[in-house]
């Protein structure tokens, strides 16, 4: 990166990696003319009319933004059935007849298969819904990938495909297994001269996350690591991947190291990180001790709009139920080098703003009887507090730390710590205004001593705001 470009990036970003919409609208005037616009979704899981209608609505938004192409990073047909894939294709051609935008330019299909497309017919929930094995065998895409693709999308299918849109290259790597992308090494070698560019990015699409990149190390759904090693030779690579359904409200969904990696969430439902009192622990057989049910993550329908400029890539994060922004626009400076990774977790953790409660915020406490997540009836103590939003306090909280303290003589002792998501944390701020509650069972705090609750708003990289407290109450 030369000094001129470095100074331009410094002025635009001012130590940040994202800008809210008013600031973004002002700054974008200095970015120049857009060179490319791409709609981005993943894990659309078409099953029925309702899921297909959400997909159609999202495509209509992309059409209104005059996109040059649309990425689907896998899991198109939820059951891996031909009829579901056909339904998705029908919605595509309804919005983009003959792959054309209203002004007549071609809108490129940048789609890949995911695990559901090729394995779904064998999943237990699919067998339960369709116990007729002959029907599943007739409907399955697996073994007919090329036939189904070419029949409904009217283009040649290959396991790894190279497409060009407005002079930018896209590599579409179809799902083959959960660990790697067979043949990618030879493919990159064959097209090396086209892809190597110190200034211009190319885009790589696969279903599973390249290992140790976006949302790592906590996220499930990572591949075996071979793709990460291969893409690390290309600082100008920008990877898009799905599978984990990690929401776009989590700023760890974008990562920079040797290259840039972006998680694409899901248009079907999102899956917030576990270990919170109201989040789910995926594929854990043991009963999870929690006093609260899992939050309604099926209301999360996330996608992005990418705009590529000469010196920047911008990513608009949206949800497609209420059609609202999920957060500030992500900005990726170009070109990227390993020595200068402004979106690395380390850089952003240092610069992240700390969320804080408003001046009049307080914690209140109620008692009641309810059932735990495991259906056990419990006497419960509930801490209530307001959500922390950017529009009211300057920084939106990612989640909250809630601690139960007891008073022992002149010492306050922490007896239990929980983390909690606000009910609307996976939505835009206008739908995250309701009160947040965190539930404790009385027998989780068995000591017969005065207790109080301490709450701190947190951001996703680990910084915590100042606490607010409840009054001391008797625990009899």
Describe this structure in words.
This protein has 476 residues and is α+β, with helices and mostly antiparallel strands. The protein folds into 2 domains: 3-266 and 301-351, Purple Acid Phosphatase, chain A, domain 2 (4-Layer Sandwich); 364-469, Immunoglobulin-like. It is 22% helix and 25% strand. The protein has 13 helices and 21 strands. It has helices spanning 3-13, 21-27, 49-64, 82-95, 115-119, 124-129, 133-139, 145-153, 184-190, 192-195, 226-231, 345-351, 390-393, and strands at 18-19, 36-41, 69-73, 108-112, 160-165, 168-173, 202-205, 237-241, 254-256, 260-263, 302-308, 312-319, 324-325, 329-333, 364-371, 377-385, 399-408, 411-420, 436-441, 451-458, 468-469. Strands 1, 2, 3, 4, 11, 12, 13 and 14 form an 8-stranded mixed beta sheet that branches. α3 packs parallel to α4. The longest helix has 16 residues, at 49-64. It is globular. The termini are far apart. Residues 1-16 have low confidence and may be disordered.
Give me the secondary-structure topology.
Elements: H1 3-13, E1 18-19, H2 21-27, E2 36-41, H3 49-64, E3 69-73, H4 82-95, E4 108-112, H5 115-119, H6 124-129, H7 133-139, H8 145-153, E5 160-165, E6 168-173, H9 184-190, H10 192-195, E7 202-205, H11 226-231, E8 237-241, E9 254-256, E10 260-263, E11 302-308, E12 312-319, E13 324-325, E14 329-333, H12 345-351, E15 364-371, E16 377-385, H13 390-393, E17 399-408, E18 411-420, E19 436-441, E20 451-458, E21 468-469
Parallel strand pairs: 2-3, 3-4, 6-7, 7-8, 8-10
Antiparallel strand pairs: 1-14, 2-11, 5-6, 9-10, 11-12, 12-13, 12-14, 15-16, 16-19, 17-18, 17-20, 20-21
Helix pairs in contact: 3-4
């Amino acid at each position: 990166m030369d000094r001129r470009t470095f100074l331009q990036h410094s002025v635009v970003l001012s130590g940040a990696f994202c800008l809210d919409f008013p600031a973004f609208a002002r700054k974008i005037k200095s970015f120049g003319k857009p060179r490319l616009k791409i709609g981005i979704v993943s894990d659309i899981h078409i099953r029925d009319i309702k899921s297909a209608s959400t997909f159609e609505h999202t495509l209509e938004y992309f059409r209104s933004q005059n996109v040059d192409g649309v990425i689907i990073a896998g899991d198109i047909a939820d059951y891996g059935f031909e009829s579901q894939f056909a339904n998705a294709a029908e919605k595509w051609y309804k919005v983009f007849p003959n792959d054309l935008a209203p002004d007549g330019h071609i809108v490129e299909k940048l789609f890949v298969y995911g695990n559901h497309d090729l394995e779904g017919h064998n999943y237990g929930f699919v067998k339960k819904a369709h116990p007729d094995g002959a029907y599943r065998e007739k409907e399955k895409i697996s073994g007919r990938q090329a036939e189904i693709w070419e029949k409904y999308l009217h283009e040649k299918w290959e396991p790894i495909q190279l497409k060009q849109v407005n002079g930018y290259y896209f590599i579409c790597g179809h799902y083959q297994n959960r660990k790697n992308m067979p043949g990618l090494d030879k493919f990159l070698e064959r097209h090396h001269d086209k892809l190597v560019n110190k200034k211009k990015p190319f885009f790589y699409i696969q279903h599973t996350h390249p290992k140790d990149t976006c949302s790592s190390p906590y996220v499930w759904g990572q591949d075996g690591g071979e793709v990460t090693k291969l893409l690390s030779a290309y600082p100008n690579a920008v990877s898009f991947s799905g599978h984990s359904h990690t929401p776009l409200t989590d700023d760890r969904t974008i990562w920079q190291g040797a290259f840039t990696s972006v998680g694409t969430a899901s248009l079907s439902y999102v899956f917030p990180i576990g270990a919170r009192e109201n989040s789910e622990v995926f594929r854990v057989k043991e009963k999870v001790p929690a006093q609260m049910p899992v939050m309604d993550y099926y209301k999360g329908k996330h996608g992005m709009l990418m705009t590529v400029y000469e010196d920047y890539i911008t990513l608009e994060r949206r949800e497609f139920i209420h059609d609202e922004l999920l957060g500030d626009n992500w900005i990726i400076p170009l070109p990227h080098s390993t020595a200068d990774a402004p979106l690395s977790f380390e850089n952003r953790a240092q610069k992240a703003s700390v969320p804080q409660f408003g001046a009049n915020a307080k914690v209140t406490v109620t008692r009641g009887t309810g059932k735990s997540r495991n259906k056990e009836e419990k006497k419960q103590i509930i801490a209530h507090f307001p959500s922390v939003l950017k529009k009211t306090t300057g920084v939106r909280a990612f989640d909250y730390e809630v601690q139960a303290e007891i008073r022992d003589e002149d010492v306050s002792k922490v007896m239990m710590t929980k983390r909690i998501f606000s009910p609307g944390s996976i939505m835009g701020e206008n739908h995250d205004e309701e009160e947040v509650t965190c539930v404790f069972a009385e027998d989780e705090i068995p000591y017969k001593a005065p207790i109080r609750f301490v709450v701190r708003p947190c951001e996703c990289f680990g910084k915590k705001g100042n606490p607010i407290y409840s009054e001391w109450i008797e625990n009899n």
